[in-house]
Amino acid sequence: MNDDRRAFRPGRRRFLAAAAALAVAACRRAPPPPPSSVSAGGRRNYGDRSPYEKIVRSFNPATTTPGTGSSKTPLQDARGIITPSSLHFERHHSGVPDIDPSRHELLVHGLVERPLVFTLRDLERLPSVSRIHFIECAGNSGREHSGRPGADPQQSHGLVSCSEWTGVPLRRLLEEAGLAPGAKWLLAEGADTCRMARSIPLAKALDDVLVAYGQNGEALRPEQGYPLRLVVPGWEGNVNVKWLGRLHVLDQPAMTRDEAAYYTDLMADGTARRFTFVMEAKSVIVRPAGGQVLPGAGPYEISGLAWSGRGRIRRVEGSSDGGASWQASVLDEPVLPKAFTRFHVPWRWSGGEAVLASRATDETGYVQPTRVAIVAARGLNGTDHYNGIKAWRVHPDGTVTHA
Amino acid sequence: MRELVVVLLLALAPAAEIGRPATPAEIAARDITVLPTGVGLPPGRGSAPAGRDLYAARCAACHGLRGEGQGEAPPLAGGQGSLTSREPKPTVGSYWPYATTVWDYIRRAMPYDHPGSLTPDEVYAITAYVLSLNGIVADDAILDAASLPAVRMPNRDGFVDDPRPDILP
């Protein structure tokens, strides 16, 4: 058993324990426990969660490059739409740098009237905005595409998370510097050891991109780009450049490795798509889902998350027969653009085999496709940007696996 | 009084008062952008034979002596003609569209344990060696800021811009 599986077991145990407790309560009303007079952790200047809470991110244990790789968010244990900063997925190509914010500077140069340098203090003087957005790795759920589905929501879809980000609109910084004629692209470069860099079309940069220093009410976490990162709403995680140190306004894309070769999608005919920025509408049921055990037939609530890089989720439909029939789900407010949306579908389990699936539609009318349709259109060689309908199979013994 | 209000408003107006001007020297020190046109490449030159020795010392431990790759260190050579097969092998030679990207990535990010430690001459040399492993330049090729962007990569025209949404209900 690897670390990922071990990490999930406490949740499953809690689930079973809760079910058992309910069963006992139904038979005989046990006396309530005496009220506790001692808090679990005492006074703490920076709070931690209850010691009873054990859910964690999971790392790929096979990674051999020290400090580098990715970790996945335990979506099956997520509540609401905000991912705690400490559970936000991470992906980095050369480790997490240690950056002193008092010495960090953002350089804006290239095709601008006034090349400028901003400190963190400078940026904090500018009007700030806070917005809730998901960030998703281009490769999230790519295992589903290649036919090696993850055993639970964390393994299948855990390279996506959602935070409230606080910072300055990138547009404002570009206005401070003044765009010069010919400006069309922007190269954003990190201050990590590999100087990870991506080119972004100026139209997007002037639209809704944030230069963010805050995450969920405090400073960014180191894995999320402390002290400064780009948030490029709805676009693949890699362009949300972390540890942001330099913005170079250009007349063309720089064609760094990560845009010229790596984050490209190879099609069956041997051509490859580039600048595949948008993360299209996707949804996944997180409860009941793979790795969980249903204690018995009866009523359940199917709960999951949906998101679209093109805007708001308009609807999510749920199915318990593998997609033969669909019913509307309830969307929790708020339903925000380019953010997680929580959906619920009431469901009564007969105790027989069932296949649970969800299908998201966004405000542009785009409908989450099936894996069959994706493979037919794109082949099997490029697995980034996969957003197929995800199904979980409920077995008569109550176990749930990928379908 | 009115004059005072105007002065106050001007003082609060969002002019470019926040941030400081970047000096040409600090821009030059930090600007490592290299474009496919060759803009941004520094002076210097390196040969594939020199690159072979540097590669053996700085790169081969992870990528293999002939760029065959191992584990998470991807193969750098081979794979031409494989992109339509069931097991495509995208490498510098079979997949990367621009030679400038190779140079830029080596300078930025390699070697993994000491990125940024190679001189421009060394980066030209290692780039020449990696391209020679792929049969793209001669075994004794010398690259510099003029010849590198002129290298024609085999998969240069293999890319298309994003056609999505490509799957309609």
Question: What would a concise description of this structure say?
Answer:
The complex is a heterodimer of chains A (403) and B (169). Chain A is an alpha+beta fold and 403 residues long.
Descriptive notes:
The complex is a heterodimer of chains A (403) and B (169). Chain A is an alpha+beta fold and 403 residues long. Chain A is globular and about 70 Å long. Chain A has helices spanning 3-27, 120-125, 142-145, 153-157, 170-177, 202-205, 257-262, 371-378; strands spanning 58-59, 69-72, 90-92, 105-110, 116-119, 129-136, 160-169, 185-190, 197-201, 210-215, 218-219, 229-231, 244-250, 265-266, 272-274, 282-287, 298-307, 313-319, 327-328, 330-331, 341-349, 354-362, 391-394, 400-402. Chain B has 169 residues and is mainly alpha-helical. Helices cover 34% and strands 7% of the residues of chain B. Chain B has six helices and four strands; from the N terminus they run αβαβααααββ. A two-stranded antiparallel ribbon of chain B has the order 2-3. The radius of gyration of chain B is 23 Å and the shape is globular. The model of chain B is unreliable at 3-15 (pLDDT under 50).
CATH third-tier fold name of the domain at 43-157 in chain B:
Cytochrome Bc1 Complex, Chain D, domain 2
Strand neighbour order, sheet with most strands of chain B = 2-3
Overall mean pLDDT of chain A: 92
Largest sheet of chain B: 2 strands, antiparallel
**Which regions of chain B contain 5 or more consecutive residues with pLDDT less than 50?**
3-15
Form type of chain B: globular
Judging by the overall fold, what is the CATH architecture of the largest domain in chain A? Alpha-Beta Complex
Distance between the termini of chain A: 21 Å
